Amino acid sequence: MGKIVTVCGAGSWGTALAIVLADNGYQVNLWTHRKSQADEINQFHTNKKYLQVQLPKNIKAYDDISEAIKDTKAIVIVVPTKAIREVMKQLNPYIHKNIPLIHATKGIEPITLKRVSEMIAEELNDYDYENITVLSGPSHAEEVAKRQPTSVTVSAVNKSRAKIAQNLFFNSAFRVYTSSDIVGIELGGALKNIIALGAGISDGLGFGDNAKAALITRGLAEITRLGTTLGANPLTFLGLPGVGDLIVTCTSVHSRNWRAGHLLGKGESLDEILEKMGMVVEGVRTTEAAYQFAQKQKIEMPITEAIYNVIFHNQSTEKAVEQLMTRDRRSELDDFSSLLHNR
């Protein structure tokens, strides 16, 4: 592996991953579409809108994507789901199939219901889907940037590409596991944001630990139900990109999705919340996509449906909770029995 690695996306997570790579001795080219942000990073070694840390001097920012990927030996994609296709179009003339391509974006595209790796493959002319690697797991950018212990998982159909990503990021503060289940890794990272919105709503309404524990547990059942329908291994959802990411996103003030849900629970409108936060809340788009898929495939996802109705149909959060609590009586083991049977 050569010494230059490019990170496309200079938000909190992209910047945190750039720090990991810089700590590992790489020259990191960090691409942003905003010149003012690139200037701040290069002049002051800060990115204050997103992280309150001093950046290593071997991170150099660019607002020209063609310059950012010049002579690079690997590309890491960390942009919002809604920007994936546009950024891939910009990269398409310059990227070739021998460059390791890793994405760390957690989301699903509404309407098409595509995972991020599928979107990337569709937009690149000379790149095989099998070589696309995903990085996911319980990893708040704020903690990664401070070198606090973090563990994640990387996955690709081509196992050698997953190994390259593991070696690229692995260090004493950032432990990286590999997996062969790219479908499960991507879906776990995306779908947990829906449940995090719900956990925030629960806290915003003033409910206690009992309610949140139930929400997380039943949310995991929904994630697993949808994931296995799409071909994921159910055991993946018991690992870092599943229950690990679910716990950290549902229980921390660092989570944008939890914060958005918390404000919804306190009665604020979604438009007000998104304007106030000033950053992408992936769970909103993912809720729309998961709801669409569940309706199409007749998959039971009551928590997702309730959050969808709150966000897109202005249903009161109190009414949504009432409907969830008064659903028909059933056995908890029904879900797990059906999952085992499907395997």
How would the blueprint of this fold be written?
Blueprint: E1 4-8, H1 12-23, E2 27-31, H2 35-44, E3 59-62, H3 65-68, E4 75-77, H4 84-91, E5 101-103, H5 116-123, E6 132-136, H6 141-145, E7 150-155, H7 159-169, E8 174-179, H8 182-204, H9 209-229, H10 240-250, H11 256-265, H12 270-277, H13 282-297, H14 302-312, H15 317-325, H16 333-342
Parallel strand pairs: 1-2, 1-4, 2-3, 4-5, 5-6, 7-8
Antiparallel strand pairs: 6-7
Helix pairs in contact: 4-5, 8-9, 8-10, 8-11, 8-13, 9-10, 9-16, 11-12, 13-14, 14-15
Summarize the structure.
The chain is of the alpha/beta class and 343 residues long. The chain has two domains: 4-180, NAD(P)-binding Rossmann-like Domain (Rossmann fold, 3-Layer(aba) Sandwich); 183-342, N-(1-d-carboxylethyl)-l-norvaline Dehydrogenase, domain 2, CATH 1.10.1040.
- Number of H- or I-type helical stretches: 16
> Percentage of helical residues?
40-55%
Rg of Cα set = 20 Å
Distance between the termini: 39 Å
Q: Which segments are poorly predicted (pLDDT under 50) over 5 or more consecutive residues? A: none
User: How are strands sequenced across the largest beta sheet?
Assistant: 3-2-1-4-5-6-7-8
The rough form would be described as globular
Question: What is the ordering of alpha helices and beta strands?
Answer: EHEHEHEHEHEHEHEHHHHHHHHH
The main sheet comes to:
8 strands, mixed
Classify the fold: give the CATH topology of the largest domain: Rossmann fold
- Proper CATH architecture of the largest domain: 3-Layer(aba) Sandwich
Arithmetic mean of pLDDT: 93
Number of separate domains: 2
Q: Name the CATH class of the largest domain.
A: Alpha Beta
